[in-house]
Design goal:
single chain, mainly alpha, 74% helix
Length: 54
């Protein structure tokens, strides 16, 4: 992870205290979760189709 900038260190702030960064991280985690579930769903559909054809 990137090192906090000099300005933030001088002000005594940490990057994890940034609400915009926290919101972005939450949005990204939600997106990754959506992609993970979608991929698992497609794999299950493909497995089901393969079993049906056997």
């Amino acid at each position: 992870m990137a090192e906090p900038s000099e300005d933030n260190r001088e002000q005594g702030k940490d990057m994890s205290d940034d609400p915009l960064l926290r919101e972005h991280q939450d949005n990204w985690k939600g997106f990754v979760r959506l992609i993970t579930y979608s991929t698992a769903f497609v794999v299950l559909i493909l497995v089901g189709m393969a079993l049906f054809l056997v």
